[in-house]
Predict the structure of TVG0372401 protein.
Amino acid sequence: MTLVITDVLRYYSGDTNDEKISKLYITASRKVLGQAYDLKNGTVLQGRLMDLSVAPGKEKITETAVPGRDRLIGTKLEAYYFSAGQSNPTADRDYIFFSSKFSHILTEYAIFAEEYEVKVEFVSAAYKLKKVKLYTKGTVMDSYSEEKSEGDVNE
């Protein structure tokens, strides 16, 4: 089975320090990925794009004329896990940065950060020579919405 994450595509304004890692990322609940599998920063995640839609609550997006975005569904992808705990120990969500290759595909189809929500299925995680399949006995769904977190800023 798998881990399915639904989140708004985001853009990291800092430097990733690695040409393989893009600046496009999503977040994942720490408990369903980082803690559950004790992942190290830079762990490679393998998966595929399951769905793509306009971000919830987004009234206006950049107008583009790009036919065939539905062809992206099913595209295999690679992503990189990074814990938010180093910069913010109380954070409950970690970062998943897409590979530069997958990011380039999204750019070619005019899929922009903050304007689109992606649903991604991850099947395995690999760090150095260790590879593990994710949730082999079931499917875990992790969805995140900005509206949920707005009231939590001071907590």
The radius of gyration is 15 Å. DSSP finds three helices and nine strands in the chain. Residues 148-155 have pLDDT under 50 and may be disordered.
